[in-house]
## 1
Amino acid sequence: MKEIVIKTSAAEYTVHCGGGTFSKYASQIISGQFFVISDRDVFAYYRYLLWDVLGEGFPVYIMPSGETGKSFANLKCILTEMLKAGMRRDCTVVSFGGGVVGDMAGLAAALYMRGVRFVQIPTTLLAQADSCIGGKTAVDFGGIKNLVGTFYPPAEVIADPRFFSTLSDRDIRCGLGEIIKCATIDEDLFGVLENCKDLSGFDFFEDMVFRCLSLKASIVQQDEFDLKGIRKVLNSGHTTAHAFEGYYRKKSHGEYVLAGLYYEAYIALKLGVCDEEYFERLKNLIFRVMKAPFFPEVEKAAEAALSDKKNRDANICVIAPVSLGKCGEIRIPLQVYSRLLKECSDELKGEHGAC
Ligand SMILES: NC(=O)c1ccc[n+]([C@@H]2O[C@H](COP(=O)([O-])OP(=O)(O)OC[C@H]3O[C@@H](n4cnc5c(N)ncnc54)[C@H](O)[C@@H]3O)[C@@H](O)[C@H]2O)c1
């Protein structure tokens, strides 16, 4: 078990990382009046464990599983149930689930009575390696992913990889998507992944969660509110990931992150800012985790990138992998972005095993 302490001007909180942290810390961290937010699948798997550790009969809101849960209607239901359960200003909201539950529970905690204590217990690889820290909360709005939200850091986090035993292969792949994203800004991590024969197993995931959270913590501490340009690197691949996610709506967030990293590295390559050798290495890593990410009609999906939060003018902003351990900001007109996505997708069409 290891700890990461995150200190920013607005908050200081501890992440308890490692196998067994849930049993060790949950009952210490969660006391007094509390309200659990989870989703249908996670609660079905772990309700007996929760009852065992926290006692039976606590108020809980069960969201639908998956991205559809990230709606205003659902946010309203959460707040309504908190009110009905008599939650006071000194209550604790406990997020128990993946990144969707975490983003929604954080937003509910931030809004209820102008802010109540918030504890994150992430249960997916993606949520443990990435979304459980940094304080970004979100709900989709107007058809745009994560358009509305707040910065609201948790008071404590428990990241216990024992929850991964029930994850599907797809959810493991999604977690690896954000882990590879971290590797695009961390040379050592890139090397570790390249040299690892099998990107799976309890010890491997436990190590990855600690490495990725340590990296994210160091970045968030320098640019808590994403205003200084430092935190942007955590968004590599995400302009295209969010555009594809909004347009296709078939795969999961982490799979779109993998695709986004590939397409944005390709854009950088064609613009002459990513070197060929690094592109091939990144491609090999991504293709170890997913089939060639071919998508049809990418020009139409490209238009969804016009609403990306990083855009400052009519150009599309992408944070693309450019060399070992480094991502760079590229601003290009929609027509150029769209043409390069199309070229990339045409090349992938012929790849063996394109998905
Ligand atoms: N706030 C941030 O900084 C941040 C960062 C990255 C991603 N995100 C958000 O995170 C979301 C994606 O997170 P996610 O991939 O965890 O998705 P998710 O929360 O939808 O979880 C994926 C699926 O796994 C199931 N699940 C969760 N834990 C499980 C377990 N232990 N065993 C079995 N099944 C389990 C869920 O029911 C769901 O069906 C996106 O909405 C994305 O925008 C937020």
## 2
Amino acid sequence: MAHHGRGVVRFALFAVLAAVPAAALAQAPAADEVTFTKDIAPILQRSCQSCHRQGEMAPMSLVTYQEVRPWARSIKNRVVNREMPPWHIDKNIGIQKFKNDTSLSDEEIALVANWVDNGAPMGDPDDMPPPVDFADSAEWQIGEPDLVVRFPAYPVPAEGPDLFGNIYTDLDLDEDRYIKAIQTRVPDDASRRVVHHALSFAVDPDEQQMREAGETDIPAAMFLVEYASGKLSEIYPENSGLLLESWRRMRLDYHLHSVGEDIDANVELGMVFHPKGHVPEHIRWSKQLGQHVTDLDIPPGKVVRTDGYTYFHSAARITAFQPHMHALGTYQCLELIYPSTGTPAETELVSCAHWDYNWHMVYNYADDVAPIIPAGTVAHVISWHDNTEAFRANPDPKNWTGNGGRTIDEMAFAWLGWYDLTDEQYEEELAERRALQEAAAATDQQQQ
Ligand code: HEC
């Protein structure tokens, strides 16, 4: 059974990698032909404007030529270094097909660089694509929620350092329900300018007191959803639901920043439930997995690697990967160790991602490549922390750092989204996946 799992993911990778570059290269125009209206505007529309437009958190709008032109040099810089758009999956390792992937291809990056080097010309106004009609950020995208949790407003002063922390509120729910869809909403323009990102959790009722008392043995929280301005969050698969127990409290993990005026930051969480009494076909889990086994011990001047392991008792489909570390984190990988009896153990590196504490990215696997794993698979999470002076995000290279819940402490685990499969469902999904891949391989061969 083990080799099935391995073969399935590998094969998918080759198919994806082989398909892209040749065609794209053939179409890349010569440098002097690259213009804003024809080549650059479509890229900005797809990958930048969700954040870079009026009323969103990014510092400037990148919609019209007049708005974009003064930023040309800076755009080239950020794009060539793959800092913008924020998308940190290592492009050379593992699965590369995701839902909502806004990252740029090598060809698109070359286009942007050529355009800037060539004086950033506007081109023919008739080539300009029609503006994108973005969904109103103040609207619910999930339909009318059955429950809205409003976190207490947080006062953000006109000036000051970035704020990180937690806000708690009670959950007003009289019975356990399965969440079908969930969305964080930042309801007003002013709040949207100061909320950089916010993660919400269903937590133990005593968590707040325990944290404040400095206790470490706090029962596990359940990760619900993430908000970052302009970015879509985790997508719950069809026919699936996440169990929200009525005894929980809610926590919002925030990153806020000052923008020159006093603003009360408002954040709401909307949920659509499955009907009462209905148990969805797939019960979705969201847990912190692969928690580092040894204590984090990150002395000044050192780069440290830690490992964590989580055993899957049942077969599963992994739908989302979200690395989690703090300021010193640099890189994290998810490896699957399959339950083979042969030696060496069969393993597969499914995803690696660079880490930037400013961005909590959720990578939602595309349906046709999401890992399908047999019971007995172990998820192995490998994390790297850098406490050297050379690491520019290091707040204090002279400090020893260990694990803990404060922002200045460190963490190392991944949030994985998955749902369990019975062994029969596993075999079925596997057969479906194989059929898809064989069909794709046949098409590839015909084209060669
Ligand atoms: C998910 C939201 C998001 C997306 C998508 C995004 N940006 Fe940004 N961008 C930001 C934020 C927030 C900042 C300010 C913080 C920072 O500098 O990292 C920023 C900063 C920048 C800066 C630096 C501005 C300065 O003050 O120097 C440039 C240039 C930039 N983005 C270009 C782009 C381009 C080009 C794209 C698309 C290819 C893009 N961004 C996509 C959110 C986003």
